[in-house]
Amino acid sequence: MKSIWVFHLNTGACNGCDIEIVDVLTPYHDIERLGVKLVSTPRHAHALLVTGPLTRQAYYAAKKAYESMPKKPRIVIAVGTCACSGGIFYNSYPIRREYERLSLEYPRKGGTSEFLPVDLYIPGCPPRPEEILFGIALLRGIAQKKVHPERYSPEELVLPRTQLLAWVELILRRRVRYELGYFDGYKLLSRFMELVEMSEEPEELKKLVEREKELTDDSRLRYGLEKLYEFYLEVLEEYRRILAMKKKEIVVI
């Protein structure tokens, strides 16, 4: 492909990334020399340049814009941290998320990948014009990047304990707020994660949770501890399932 026609779509950005895109179009950076042209309708676009987290209001318009593009090549480029993963807004109410989607790579939700297959991620808050230029160059094949198949051993797939606990806490934050609300829920979750760090096995954690329940007079907090323990077991089971699935995908050297 010698040139790419691009349609810019803002799905809820603060305009920081949009300003950088405008900067890329100026004579100083001159992205058109790479064969990139900004078009006014998705019907003429090869690529969709998305900025911002995916808001509930923007979802349907964004979906319609994507479906209006020609079927080939239909390239999707996520520009900025918000478009890549939801950014600082990932956990807020206006952001649309697919709750059933769970993975080790993308624990945060709210980015473009919630509803579109993303071909290129350009992270940054906001990304510099040079980074956007390099991303487009990679997409066009101007800057050749050596890409090799990723190969893992089963041991390398296991997350370090600190990283695993951070992943678990991120998932539990969303669940606990529906049970106890933001203030009490997050405060209780902080205490629960301290108990998790003190334990090595789920059975040991169960004993610590029971002891903590005996020390509190608030029935809501006792209920919250029970639910957190249940959620914790569910997340661990999901982690084991994902791990087993990924071990089957290992490329043998």
UniProtKB/TrEMBL annotation:
Domain NADH:ubiquinone oxidoreductase-like 20kDa subunit: 14-137
Keyword 4Fe-4S: yes
Cofactor or coenzyme needed: [4Fe-4S] cluster
UniProt keyword terms in alphabetical order: 4Fe-4S, Iron, Iron-sulfur, Metal-binding
Annotated InterPro entries: Complex_I_20kDa-like (IPR052375), NADH_UbQ_OxRdtase-like_20kDa (IPR006137)
Keyword ATP-binding annotated: no
GO MF annotations, alphabetized: 4 iron, 4 sulfur cluster binding; metal ion binding
Entry similarity comment: Belongs to the complex I 20 kDa subunit family.
Protein name: Membrane bound subgroup 4b [NiFe]-hydrogenase MBH(B)1, subunit Mbh(B)1J
